[in-house]
Specification:
alpha+beta, 671 residues, Glutathione S-transferase Yfyf (Class Pi), Chain A, domain 2
Length: 671
């Protein structure tokens, strides 16, 4: 195959892929997919006759476009960005047309009503039911003129989301500060200074990428430097910067479009539309859930804040604790109270030891073995692994851990290929694991903070959900078909192991001495585990309430902005309020450029499930008990979306979920 995007015989051919390949490949695959749709429209309403051929064509398009979208996220360039934006409307239009297709909708309904349906596997029955739901949500029942309007909106929303993400990346990249005064770098850790050091000793350059930004906010004694960088970060992609990168008008356009789309489909709000495919029943149920958590967390958050304010005033001379002081004062208080720093802990977590410890854990829990392997990659930093169990290869994954200017912020897992049966053979799944950690400097391996380790375990939990599935149909394989407010269960579940001595001690090695993490230091970390947990929980609840209200009872036509609503939410939820000039919504990419619109609450919703699931390991003879691990793999990870998440949880836990484990893990109730 000359065009690497048209080759599905193996792994993506990233080393050969150029922007010039994108349009020809996507045009070819769209033509093939439309031909498959036409064939399916003429076929009888049976799985093999019309669903299977349609799945094949759609998978090819999805895999090729997935490679383009992945590179747009991790290796952005002017040429790739142009190719992505040129083809995004075409791809969006096809998926919208497919969701509108009345003929296919009727065939799915006919299959659901005929005798063959009862002979299908439960997984395929769920795929059919999900498809009927998705046709309704995709506008298949709309009259022609409304379908046309709906298609226009979906196209515009896709382009707005892409532009939001691009603006945020460009705004992040556009800022840097060169510090030449030795006094201004006081307190900043040596590894962060090495990374910032300019050639010829011409000072230190700091940016808004997290490996550069966080050490300044956490350790820099220079308050003016902290304030400058905080202001730059908090006002990214807003009216305070380049007009062409301002996300404010995009937000003002996205919200009414989402609301209009929901009304077209017969829902009073976008939130109610969003929840149709989730575990939660209604916006009021979600807000009640969040309010209950907020009431439980608030006393702890108020105590956290009072302690921090007293410490900042009495020990640091900060009469008024400003937003740019919070990370700095918190780190100083933690060092005072628990006699250790994040920087001290970081020296014990070199990248290779952390990965080995992670792989050791999943081998113990699930009987799977990760081993380095070869594959074409998009950047020299990327590593590739095979995942085996006793039966042979079960999946593969890429690991891209370091921050760079061409990569969007945050951490995420995505799928390159899903598991499915093809005749007598099984197509094994492939995943991308992406983070934004500090790269190696000064001849040392990359060193991770404990928060970085938590992030890596979190994303690998998503990866395991994708890789350990036993489902053999695309619609329910891995995370496909899993309710969005349950998809964080396997990821948040994995974070718990980062607080277990028997796990952690096997993944540490001091960067200089080679010594393992001392038990005394681990005990200090454990004692500090719930340091400011009240503030952290309220912050997540604030974001979740803001998101749900934004898509439920917020009227974009009224003379109020998203910022006005955020201020209202903070007045009832938060104990810490950022400066009035902060523009948090402009960088809230989860909601405006990701899949979490009216779904950000899912982090807390799934955390209840994950904490309760982990308590089964705490009740076992060991937290790494392979028998409990096997049950979790069988009942949660392996089934993917082939049954409702609530059923999977009950099958593993033997009962409904309870909130107590989450509160206990956060130090809000006793053991």
């Amino acid at each position: 195959m000359h065009n690497p995007l048209l080759d599905f015989s193996g792994l993506p051919r990233f080393a050969e892929l150029t922007p010039a390949h994108v349009s020809p490949a996507i045009d070819t695959l769209l033509a093939q997919a439309r031909a498959a749709v036409s064939h399916a429209e003429q076929a009888p309403p049976a799985w093999d006759a019309f669903i299977a051929p349609l799945e094949d064509a759609n998978e090819s398009l999805g895999r090729a476009w997935g490679q383009v979208a992945h590179l747009h996220a991790v290796l952005d360039s002017p040429g790739l960005r142009a190719a992505y934006n040129e083809n995004l409307p075409k791809v969006t239009q096809f998926w919208t047309e497919l969701g509108h297709n009345q003929v296919l909708f009727e065939k799915y309904k006919a299959l659901r009503a005929c005798a063959e349906f009862s002979a299908l596997s439960p997984a395929r029955q769920r795929i059919v039911d999900n498809a009927l739901r998705d046709f309704r949500l995709g506008g298949a029942e709309l009259p022609p003129e409304r379908k046309a309007r709906y298609a226009q909106m979906q196209d515009e929303l896709a382009q707005l989301a892409a532009k939001f993400s691009e603006n945020l990346l460009d705004a992040t990249n556009s800022y840097s500060i060169l510090v030449e005064d030795q006094k201004s770098i006081a307190g900043i850790p040596q590894d962060a200074l090495l990374a910032a050091q300019q050639e010829g000793g011409r000072g230190w350059k700091f940016t808004l990428h997290m490996p550069s930004y966080l050490p300044v906010m956490q350790y820099a004694d220079d308050r003016a430097l902290r304030e400058e960088m905080y202001r730059a970060s908090a006002t990214r992609a807003s009216e305070f910067g380049k007009p062409e990168l301002d996300n404010t008008p995009l937000i003002a356009r996205i919200l009414p479009l989402r609301a209009e789309a929901a009304r077209l489909l017969g829902y009073p709000s976008y939130a109610e539309l969003s929840l149709v495919a989730k575990m939660a029943d209604s916006p009021s149920q979600v807000l009640g859930f969040l309010e209950d958590l907020a009431v439980r967390a608030r006393p702890h958050a108020e105590r956290d804040l009072a302690e921090l304010q007293d410490f900042a005033r009495d020990e640091l001379g900060l009469d008024k604790l400003e937003a740019w002081d919070l990370a700095y004062a918190s780190e100083k208080l933690r060092q005072r109270r628990y006699a250790f720093s994040d920087q001290e802990v970081k020296q014990y977590f070199p990248e290779d030891a952390v990965l080995q410890g992670l792989f050791r854990l999943v081998q113990t829990l699930y009987g799977v073995h990760a081993a380095p392997a070869g594959a074409p990659v998009w950047h020299e930093d990327v590593r590739f692994f095979d995942l085996h169990d006793a039966g042979g290869l079960i999946g593969q994954f890429y690991v891209d851990l370091y921050a760079r200017d061409t990569k969007r912020g945050g951490a995420w897992m995505d799928d390159a290929r899903a598991r499915r049966r093809r005749g007598t053979s099984i197509q094994t799944p492939v995943a991308y694991l992406n983070c934004n950690f500090s790269r190696p400097y000064g001849g040392k391996p990359a060193l991770f903070t404990h928060d970085d380790v938590l992030t890596l375990f979190h994303e690998f939990g998503h990866g395991l959900h994708h890789l350990l599935t036993r489902a053999e149909d695309l619609g329910v394989s891995g995370i496909s078909g899993v309710e969005w407010d349950a998809v964080e269960l396997p990821s948040q579940f994995m974070e718990n192991f980062c607080w277990e001595w028997d796990v952690l001690r096997h993944m540490t090695r001091h960067a200089d001495t080679g010594d393992a993490l001392p038990r005394a230091l681990f005990d200090k970390m454990l004692a500090a585990k719930n340091f400011q947990s009240g503030l952290a929980m309220l912050r997540q609840i604030e974001f979740a309430v803001f998101d749900m209200r934004l898509h439920w009872d917020f009227d974009p036509a009224a003379q109020r902005s998203a910022l006005d609503l955020l201020a209202e939410v903070r007045a009832t939820v938060a104990v810490l309020v950022p400066p009035a000039w902060s523009r948090f919504p402009n960088s809230f990419s989860h909601v405006f450029a990701g899949g979490y619109a009216a779904g950000y609450y899912g982090y807390k919703w799934a955390e209840v499930l994950s904490a309760d699931a982990y308590s089964a390991f705490e009740e076992a003879r060991s937290v790494t008990d392979p028998d409990t691990g096997a049950r979790f793999r069988d009942e949660v990870l392996a089934v993917g979306g082939s049954r409702p998440a609530a059923e999977s949880f009950r099958a593993f836990r033997g009962r409904e979920p309870r909130v107590e484990a989450l509160l206990r893990h956060n130090g809000m109730i006793g053991a």
